[in-house]
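Limitations

Structures in this collection are predictions, not experimental determinations, and the ligand pose is part of the prediction. Treat each record accordingly. The example that follows, with calcium ion as the small molecule, is included so readers can see exactly what is and is not provided: the inputs are given verbatim, and the output is the predicted complex.
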Amino acid sequence: MKTEHKMHVLLVEDDMVLADGVARILRGHGMVVDVVTNGDDADRALQSREVSVAVLDIGLPGIDGFEVVRRLRARGSSLPVLLLTARDDVQDRVRGLETGADDYLVKPFAAPELVARLKALVRRSNPRPAELQLGGLQLDPFARRATIDGQIIELSAREWAVLEYLMQHASRVVSKQQIIDAILPWGEEVTLNAVEVYVSRIRAKIAQAGIAIKTIRGFGYMLEPTRPAQE
Ligand code: CA
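Predicted complex:
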């Protein structure tokens, strides 16, 4: 079965009745919800807790929602934030988005809309990795699919990892040790000779792709195109 990570929501709302109601709805959708009721607690919680998204009321005791977002962004966090505004006030919305919030909802809002927007925010913050292309070779890291001019080529997990690393560093020299470190972050044993074996297998499989893995003697490899890029 596919394991799914639960969404962890920090809900910041000083209206306890609203906070309880929203928390119950979100939990009903399988989310983990922490509730705090003022801006200072929100600021602290965002520095110490791992959450996937924050729902922030603007009008709060202590520092307000705008300031909580401003501090969050000043710390370099890209955590998705949805603001709750009490009034349909264009200026509040503009200010919120300019401060670094990603979305907003005007109270009162419909529960399904809040749930849908939170899911969309979290989805957008985990974008699928970009496809890699060089010559006729295309790697789709999300689908783990390699194709040459549209034809699927079969790669073992380790061949895939080596090729993906070379593609990410195309036209740059990489050492065998860098390749080992990149493909085995969990510290499994792989020898330099094994890397040579993977590379020679990959070479045979990508022979028709208009790219080549050049050997940099005594050091490592460089993947580069051998045919001019198509205009
Ligand atoms: Ca409030």
